[in-house]
Design a protein that fits this description.
The chain is α+β, with helices and mostly antiparallel strands and 444 residues long. It is 26% helix and 30% strand. Strand 21 and strand 22 form a beta hairpin. Helix 3 packs across helix 4. The radius of gyration is 25 Å and the shape is elongated.
Length: 444
């Protein structure tokens, strides 16, 4: 690896002119080494993995790809596509972020990332005082020196490390964050970017870096982090409902359901119905004099939804419930945002499962209408029909099945049956009374 100290803009241009096709760039505020070699780790390696949050992020990453990227199988979304969203919108990945642009690399080297929790005192639709907790992010110009790395893609390829060009994922409307940053991902990696792939390390004064990135048009945060009205993926992730944090405070506190950094925070004194503020509510506890009055409910944690699969597994425990009751409900302790439903305030809350005859079973979505802070309506949506006499169950065409083209909703609804069957088999469900059953994780 060449070590070069740059003292003029002309010297920087001269170096970059020698590295065109086949090379990528990375800018950092500081230079890190390990055992004498440059150390560029993945974000997972730096920050570790939090499985429940990882599953939630992964679900929403894949669901927005499916919603906005055209028809595709959620479970077949290529890893780098979902990791691109995780990496660029606020979570962690098994990849190292690189760029095709020397201007972008210089911008990231010359600007320091900062984030802080901020609290907005607001009013909901009922003029009730509430607090919103946000993760406000910004970049502050760095002083002194910073660092640029030039990476040889042929070295990565020789080590069977793929480089994924994210600019090919650009949307037709607006501009996505990873497109604005001309981003590429190297990986997946177990730990760090191989040191031998870094062919040049530049130490550069920040004022020179600033001149270079501004000459490329990168003169504001918005140029690399488009705001929510221009970046539809960012906006879709911001639509996920807020969730109340704790219940012991006089003024309710809400956090985003998906905790992502925001670069374009705007304070609003009075919130609209588009700010969905969810306080844990159990339909199971308020179902008197409804169609669900005599139906058993199984309360399950939200992880049951995000830890999903498109496999149809053993459902012997589910079959026992249907034999005893003919129908039942799996209810989640959250409401789940469906990207295709933007502006409709309709959210998933679980599934309603019922026998149609001796062999056919309908798996229907349990939904709520929830504008603002109020749960307005509870109901079921048409589902898919399955033949329970086969092992595993098989989906059958039926005149009463849901006609929508959102296959994903139904696949994930069915996956909840797998999760409940597993929980019952592993004795993770306790009996509250004859019609109420609770997953033990909800007692923690």
């Amino acid at each position: 690896m060449k070590e070069l100290t740059i003292t003029t803009l002309e010297e920087l241009y001269a170096v970059f002119s020698n590295y065109g096709d086949g090379y990528l760039y990375r800018g950092q505020n500081n230079h890190y080494t390990k055992n004498g070699h440059v150390n560029i780790p993945t974000s997972f390696s730096r920050q570790g993995c939090v499985p429940p949050q990882m599953l939630q992020w992964s679900h929403y990453a894949r669901s927005v790809i499916r919603a906005f990227g055209g028809p595709c199988n959620y479970h077949d979304v290529e890893l780098e596509f979902s990791q691109a969203i995780l990496q660029h919108y606020g979570w962690r990945s098994f990849y190292v972020d690189l760029t095709k642009s020397s201007h972008v690399a210089c911008w990231f080297a010359a600007n320091v990332y900062k984030e802080q929790r901020c609290i907005h005192m607001c009013e909901d639709l009922a003029e009730r005082s509430i607090k919103l907790v946000l993760n406000e992010a910004e970049f502050i110009p760095k002083e002194g020196i910073a660092h640029i790395y030039i990476i040889d893609t042929l070295v990565l390829q020789s080590m069977n490390i793929k480089v994924h060009d994210l600019t090919v994922l650009a949307g037709e409307e607006g501009i996505l964050r990873y497109s604005a940053q001309q981003a590429c991902l190297a990986g997946p990696l177990k730990d760090v970017l191989p040191a031998q792939s870094v062919v040049v390390h530049l130490t550069v004064p920040c004022d020179i870096l600033k001149k270079h990135h501004e000459s490329g048009g990168y003169d504001a945060v918005k140029k690399l982090f488009p705001d929510r009205k221009d970046d539809f993926l960012y906006n879709a992730l911001l639509q996920i409902p807020w969730k109340q944090f704790g219940t012991e405070t006089i003024v309710p506190i809400y956090r985003r359901g998906l905790d992502l950094p925001e670069y374009d925070v705007v304070y609003r004194k009075r919130l609209s119905e588009s700010h969905v503020l969810y306080t844990e509510t159990w339909i199971a506890n308020t179902r008197g004099n409804t169609a669900f009055e005599a139906v058993p409910f199984y309360k399950m944690p939200e992880l049951s939804y995000f830890c999903n699969s498109d496999e149809i597994m053993d459902l012997s425990k589910i079959e026992e419930i249907l034999f005893d009751y003919g129908s039942f409900v799996i209810e989640l302790d959250c409401i789940v945002h469906i990207p295709e439903n933007q502006g409709r305030y309709e959210f998933e809350k679980g599934v309603y499962v019922r026998k149609l005859d001796e062999t056919l079973v309908s798996v229907e979505g349990l939904y709520v209408l929830h504008p603002g802070h109020t749960l307005h309506k509870v109901g079921t949506l048409q589902g898919w029909i399955y033949d329970s006499s086969t092992s595993p169950w098989t989906r059958v065409g039926h005149k009463d099945e849901c006609p929508c083209n959102n296959e994903l909703r139904h696949v994930l609804q069915f996956s909840l049956l797998n999760r409940l069957n597993e929980a019952l088999t592993e004795q993770k469900v306790r009996t509250a009374d004859s019609l109420n059953y609770i997953h033990k994780d909800l007692d923690k």
